[in-house]
Prior knowledge:
alpha/beta; Dihydrodipicolinate Reductase, domain 2; 2 domains; globular
Amino acid sequence: MKNIVVLGAGMVGRTIAKDLATDYNVLSTDISDENLSLIKNSSNIQIQRANISDKNEIKNLIADADCVVGAVPGFMGFETLKTILNNKKNVVDISFFPEDAFELDALAKENNVTAIVDCGVAPGMDNVILGYHNQRMKIQRFECLVGGLPFERKLPFQYKAPFSPIDVIEEYTRPARLVENGKEIIRPALTEPEFIHFENIGTLESFNTDGLRSIIKTMNIPDMKEKTLRYPGHRKSMEMLRDMGFFSEEEVFVKGKMIRPIDLAAAVMLPQWKYKSGEEEFTVMRVIVQGNESGKNIRYTYDLFDQYDKATQTSSMARTTGFTCTAAVRLLLKKKYSRTGINPPEYLGEEENNFQFILSELKKRNVIYKMKKEEI
């Protein structure tokens, strides 16, 4: 049986480890004893407390791995991936770090490593869908709307974060890159709000965030954008806090100490943003791919609505992110995909068999993308 090491045992990391343990031996590692305690009794999973920011510890942890999963916080992701590549291990990464993964492409190729990055729900499945259609039609427009939200709306935030608050806050501060008329443009995060109605949910508010990532480089499409979805009112609250400086990374002097406002904001928000055990939430995503196919103007719309799984007590965000990742791991271990270098998910979607394999793996776990094709 093949061996997999999952670096990071947070909510998504644990879900990945449990899913892969149905077919493989899994080592789950984290610096948090609390995180590891939540997975220690799972079948086929060993746990080990480790400082994943230490290169030597990573080297020792992954020495016997057939594949590695990077599920660490974003601020650790780039260096962690670099260490994995230096140790010549194939890897699937969901840390969504802010750096450009292609900076590590030469290193991955030099070490004959396949590194699949950004392999979650978005970025992730939206890229897979885009990559698939980009091989089969002349795309003019791509749009992704995505968000994860609690069912219970509670002021003032009307939001909870299934992962690090600092990673969420960065979505509200990092300028958003879009493509319009074939040119990359930059707009502030939280701009261009729109109200959009979704079945089963109601009206949500979309706004610009920097979600296109790799496809700006890999796809030659005239119009592309990704927008985040939240309950109406959340965007305005975040905009106010940002503009007041609470999300700044510039240190300020407070009572004899230098602190970053963003660290204070994250510490204050964490208790209010943290999901309670068993608290129900959902993920909603809409992907629109529009263009010319066989001489006709065609629009494909993919809709996802997924919710907390009561039976397994698994959050929707962990399911939709984690199961995309585990599908990619299985592609690697089954030798269905072996392109060396840095591989964003749009590369995975190019081959019909791989595209259908990923959709099938998700469907087995009741993560279902409903597709509608229409001539326009």
